[in-house]
Amino acid sequence: MAKTILVTGGTGYIGSWVVKELLEKNYRVRVPVRSFGLKEKYQHLQGLPNSDSLLELFEADLLIDGAFDSAAEGADAIIHMASPFTLRFKNPQLDLVDPAVKGTRNVLSAANKSTTVKRVVLTSSVAAVHGDNIDMKEQGLSEFTEEHFNSTSSLKHQPYSFSKVQAEKEAWRINAEQTNWDLVVINPALVLGPSLAGNSNSESLQIMKDLLSGKYRFGAPELYFGFVDVRDVAKAHVLALENPNAKGRYIIAERVSNFMELVTIINKNFPSQYKLPQMTAPKWLLYMVSPLFGLSPRFVARNVGHRIAFNTNRSRQGLGLVYTPFEQTVVDMVKQFQGN
Known about the structure:
Helices cover 41% and strands 15% of the residues. The protein is of the alpha/beta class. The longest helix has 22 residues, at 92-113.
């Protein structure tokens, strides 16, 4: 009998790849959609291999108590990916923190009520590991590991990152109060790569769109990120689901890089096709233009020009994840933009 997996956020950028991976491995997959009327949000899933026989869609709102209880009953595991990812908000508590925490609480409450769920895989973020890049230097670290929790983000500074910390900590709290299911957490860096959800509003896709459209043509900020392929993030979730020894947190990142290295890869593979930045923008200029990009002077001060490093040994050795080379990720993503 095929195992049944409930995947929240299964219609999104990362979630769609997780659903594809599960269906190809002959799992039964239950995916909530906010409304059957919004077919454009989920119809790409219905075209995946094995979707006719193994995919079950149901209507549910992440923020309504009990919305996942019936879907969790009979499921062997839950992959909880649904969480607001937006950098455009009015009230960080109401728009980011409350939905992230309440959604996590609702899904794990369904796990608690279920008589069948044995494992929950939660999508968190490296934003729950660290807040600002300068944190590494200020904390005297040579790299971030799974032992580190972001302690510098708040409602007023880096509220999205703050929401990820609060949601993950709530998950660990709920997990500690029961013994029926175990919790494994995936902490991906900045996710790039092609999208299965053509109309996805992922911030990852927006970053690449901005770069290719010429938004940064006068100079790219010297910002360092961990980067990882969306397909590898999906694989990490399935490995965490299947490996009985998986436990704790897993940082998922192929490498740390910056905008200009991204530009070099695009220029090499797509010469003279885009209005890409030719240079790194000086930090003093970024202080002046930061409001145009929705960035605070504090963000610029604590992130621009500060290198970071992540230890990814647990993902490579513990999960057995083999990463897609960064150049391949970028090329596949740009090719998809060209095809649209």
